[in-house]
Design a protein that fits this description.
alpha+beta, globular, about 25% helix, Alpha-Beta Plaits, four-stranded antiparallel beta sheet, two-stranded antiparallel sheet, about 110 residues
């Protein structure tokens, strides 16, 4: 059996209206995140009430979750970039400690 080594990283989950997904992905690209995952049509309840996950008119009308895994030094630039968005629009962000087995997949070259 091959032994795996785990490396500490940070996972960032961002919940926003779909119309802001491009802003988020552009920000992640600019700060050097090597990838991200987008989950469309998210349902949930928060400060602004319940949000349905089904499409109303198009995919920018519903909420999305964008998440990425980055080295710790990339977290602060992402937070700084999200500030203007969250000052004007609703949304949520979560930063958690995670461990990955293939660190090279999460570090920009």
């Amino acid at each position: 059996m091959v032994s795996l080594t785990l490396h500490p990283m940070k996972e960032i989950k961002i919940v926003v209206q779909g119309e802001h997904a491009k802003f988020i992905t552009d920000l992640l690209d600019r700060v050097g995140a090597t990838g991200y995952t987008i989950i469309n049509n998210v349902s949930g309840k928060g400060q602004h009430g319940f949000h349905e996950g089904h499409l109303l008119f198009n995919d920018i009308s519903s909420q999305v979750i964008v998440f990425t895994v980055v080295p710790e030094e990339r977290v602060e630039p992402i937070l700084a970039g999200l500030g203007p968005l969250f000052n004007k629009h609703s949304g949520a962000m979560f930063v958690t400690d995670v461990a990955v087995s293939r660190r090279e997949h999460f570090v920009a070259k």
